Write the structure tokens for this entry.
Amino acid sequence: MTPVMRRIIALAMVLIVIVAGGAALAVMEDVSVPFDNNQAERDVRMVKVQQKTSGAFHSDQGAHAFARVRGYLSTLRKQSYPLLAALESVFRGHPLIPCLES
């Protein structure tokens, strides 16, 4: 990495701290705060993988159903619920309702 690139990265980091304020440094104070936004990128990636493997969704209804199931499972995973037990409870008619408070 060249010295110019290092300066650009350092300037970008300073600007992030100035613009975002304390939120940019929250990871240093609270270990539960993720260091990056990789989880958001992973959530979007699954939709792209589904589109690439099947070519596209066959209908808007199928796309909505896929997104709804993925969102439900992603939320449960983030809240450390057992996914298989959650799916079983859905098919039994008593779905687990994830906590909406953060």
User: Anything to note?
Assistant: Residues 12 and 33 are 21 Å apart (CA to CA). The chain is about 65% helix and 0% strand. The two ends are 39 Å apart (CA to CA).
